[in-house]
Amino acid sequence: MYGWIWRHLPGNTWVKALISLVLVLAVVFVLFQYVFPWAEPLLPFNDVTVDQGMAAVR
Amino acid sequence: MTLRGRTAVRWTVRTLSETCLTVGALIVLFVVYLLFWTGVRADSAMDGEIGKLRHQWATGETTGPGGTPPPDGKRAPGRGPTRDARPRPYTAGASFAVMHIPRLGADWAKPVLEGTTTGVLQRGLGHYDRTAHLGETGNFSVAGHRRTYGDPFKDFPRLRPGDAVVLTDGATWFTYRIDNRPYTTLPGDIGVIDPVPRKSGFNGPGRYLTLTTCEPEWGHSHRLIAWAHLDSTQPVAQGRPSALTG
């Protein structure tokens, strides 16, 4: 997978490395901004209330 | 083994390793997100809420119900029929008070927001919207994260009877005193935030406060509860209460 991506990036080694870095940062950004905030409420650390809050939190 | 077979094996092993590496990296990133990033976000959100409140109070607008109640808590007669006797409702999702608990740290101060939804609890402590308002007869109940999102109630089990829980709505300081060691209960036990909380040892109407968080620290099987009663109030103009300065 990673080899395939590397082979399909344009430019010489330096350009490829730079593009890879940008891609990695973009993936991390998307994870922190969208994926993890969505996944996090599915885990138990959010359940701190004793009533209907539960339903909203879970 | 034929050349083709070897290529297939190599491809399989490589894909498997890449998948493992990717999943590993994802897990590490998620842990970083939970332990570090939610804290960074929550701390800045809470500081922002407190700053907003202090600014509001400095410009003369209090968030408290109907201004300053007298120290004995009773509404003064003769306040005039033009004043609305009912407390001003809190706005859902908005902060209206700051809580200090010296036991959790001399500089431990968190905003209290209206509501207990996920989004609210990411920006501070959440007031159960069906419970009493600050300082009123009834049970002013507040929930907070034990872990993640700034760990506001990380040291909850260290609370002891007599510990002060001090709140201000910009007009009045309310000093509550804890009455029990943290009590462990089940998530469905909503009696703990009743106006006279069940099993708290309180046996009549009064001005109570309930704090709830999760138990165990990283789990959600139980809840940890602390109850307190209103010990004293004083106008903000008289300075910080002794529980904070002493």
From TrEMBL, chain A:
Parts of the chain that traverse the membrane: 14-36
Keyword terms: Membrane, Transmembrane, Transmembrane helix
Domain of life assignment: Bacteria
The protein's name: Uncharacterized protein
Organism for this UniProt entry: Streptomyces angustmyceticus
